[in-house]
Amino acid sequence: MWSILRRLGISLKRRRSWCVCTDPQRTQKSADIVGLYLAPPENAVVLSFDETPCIQALEREEGWLKMPDGRALIGFAHEYNRHGTSTLFAGLNVATGRLTGGRFKRKRCEDFLKFMNQVVAQHPGKELHVILDNLSTHEVEKGAWAKAHPEVHFHFTPTHASWLNQVEVSFGILTVKALRGMSFWSVKELISQIDAFIAAYNQEPAPFEWTRIKVNAKTSTGKNANLFK
Q1: How far is it, in rounded angstroms, from Cα 79 to Cα 8?
Q2: Quick one: which of 41, 94, 138, 211 could link to 46 by a disulfide (CB 3.0–4.6 Å)?
Q3: Is the pLDDT of residue 81 over 70?
Q4: Which residues pair with 2 in a beta bridge?
């Protein structure tokens, strides 16, 4: 079978994927967010926000396996026990690189507002510009909470454009540095690991360097467009 695939030039490892932004306001929304990154309002705080839901506390069986040639293979067995999940709410201060985290069981609107109250309390008297996605639990910009906090301004990323949200990079660092391949006996231990990561991350925070490059590309309509990359 493999010889046939090679002869036909078929590679099972080669896969192409893409995500097309279908938001009719993608240009305006992208320009708004990139503008906040490159030229934030004076005396204001720009916060990049998102959630990582259902982070699993997996207890993995660790040890070693003796191979036929006498070597020892150290690692994890494929089986594991589940001890529950936790949802991380996180806000990245775009100017300083500091992370603010909140742990919740779910990602409900009331949990989002609890986290926003925490953020507002951390920046008294400051104007806040919050970059976030279009999750239904974030639709509070016209509700009672938003009216009670006129200093908070929400900026929504275009649909299918999560790459515009800088906090996503922080989630990737968290996964690689603190969660991947780890074994946890409980959700409490998982939360302690996440808190320890955020504390260590904030000891020497640094903002991400966001640059704007004009790229000529063919859009789905066939017209040339300047894209933010």
Answers
A1: 37
A2: 94
A3: yes
A4: none
Q: Which helix (H) or strand (E) holds 80?
A: strand 72-93
CATH number reported for the structural domain that contains residue 59 in this entry: 3.30.420.10
Instruction: Quick: pLDDT tens for 179-229.
Output: 887 888 899 999 999 999 999 999 999 998 876 566 554 443 333 333 333
Count of residues in the chain: 229
Map residue 213 onto helix, strand or coil. coil
Whether 91 and 113 have beta carbons less than 8 Å apart is answered as no
If 0-12 CB within 10 Å is exposed, 13-18 middle and 19+ buried, where does residue 94 land?
A: buried
Do residues 23 and 16 touch, judged by C-beta distance below 8 A? no
The DSSP 8-state label assigned to residue 176 in this structure reads I
How do residues 127-170 score in pLDDT, each as one tens digit?
A: 999 999 888 888 887 789 989 999 999 999 998 888 889 999 99
